[in-house]
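cache lookup: miss for this entity combination. No prior model stored, computing from scratch. Input as submitted by user K.M.:
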Amino acid sequence: MLPALLWLAIFMIVPVGLVLAYSVFTRGVYGGIDYIFTWDNFVRAADPLYARIFLTSARVAGLATIFALLIGYPAAYAIGLAPKRHQATLLFFAVLPFWSNYLIRTYAWIVLLNREGLINAGLKALGYQGEPLSILYTEGAVIAGLVYNYLPFVILAIYASLSRLDPQLREASRDLGGGAATTFWRVTLPLTVPGVAAGAVFVFVLSIGNFVTPALLGGGRFQMVGNLVYDQFLTANDWPFGAALGLALITVMLVLLIVQAALTGRAAGEARRPA
Amino acid sequence: MKGSQISATLILIAVFSFLYVPIAVLVLLSFNEAGLPTVWSGFSTRWYASLVHHAEILGAAWNTLVVAVAATAISTVLGTLLALGLETRARRSRGLEALVMAPMIIPDIVLAVSLLSFFSWADVTMGLHTIIASHVVFDLAFVSAVVRAQLKSFDFSIVEASRDLGAGAFTTFRRVVLPVILPGIVAGALLAFTLSVDEFIIAFFTAGAGRDSITLPMQIYSMIRFGVTPEINALATLVMAVSATALLISQRLNRGAIAP
């Protein structure tokens, strides 16, 4: 156990700690770090110019999360309704794309969405005469890419939560006169909150810090926090400011994990509550 | 069929189409003579043939293999020890569990810039070795999770039996524990290998400036960003085929490694 923990200490704890420390130092004249304490990096991150990028990121990540849940919940529910012997296979193939190369999955959307892409070709084949639609390099394309990339995990998380649900609870609801809709809204959905929360946090955290999807599907001009961090480290050479932005991302992640834990705890409490 | 089953089937068809049509289109295009996304001009394997002559892609593929094999070897050994340590501890520490799982949750970009800062602060010349060290960080989390899943159903009383019969700690591990958990270890190793082959962001930040430590995902990224060539469809298809094969084997060895 010790060698592994040592590895994590050297290549995770120390590096992350270092970046957190960088966030309160000053950028050197030629890049690099001057070890002079300052809050400036955080003040700068709150500047309207950057605050807007945070808002854009939060909006894009939020929409991606909502769409992933709207598609993922019915998908997980449908897998749960399939014959027991097929469920593992269905789940495996639902999750398989998640383990394949992220860049390739994103590139597939360039092929679908570009002006000569499949969607425009399809429209033309259907008799559409106008200019090809500019769908690539929009916020919508970025959201589509994020939903596509993280959907498998949402399906997995919600399915796990659904499969832990005691079927007798649903039967009891039906016996007590609850219709299908009532049973879903008042029994099934509240008890699968842990799965929904886990899936949602996952999509939101990975989306808000993403830089690949905005860079490839949003075009060069569409910026999210991840792209900003990338630029500060690799282009502007302003590591302290990049570190402050990274710290902001970690903070968002921690807050969401705490919310998730609270939701999971509450759902567990409700399940245990005597009727 | 009941109404609910019909709608469930329709939902599954729609969702699986959404997941697999984009991938299928790429695979189909990789065999398109013209190399154009929209015009189908006949079946051809010329783009696969031209990959073989593409020196940069071959170099990147070699680097990827070196990184994946090394990171898998290190993380399989360390991850298995970690799993054994965590499962045999009488008192569970939530802090320790969180620490081990953290690399799965920390945003990639944060881990990537942290490692870049660390290597440059420690004055380490970056290259394949720094990519390997960095990949082990998240591979560890996955290997230990898969091996721990296998250990959950392990009956530790046979370890005691082995010790009672006079076997030393190492013999007990090799002859009793290892054979039982080996499928889990191999499944974890295959998962680590796949993740390492596909990982882009951390490799990108920890590779250093030289062209000689470019990995396949980095090569793919620059091909996408700066002028798409038709070879990329063939390359993408091959990379996906390798990942899918490793995962299918991993899944067979350890039911529940990828999806419980």
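stored under new cache key. Chain A has 13 helices and two strands.
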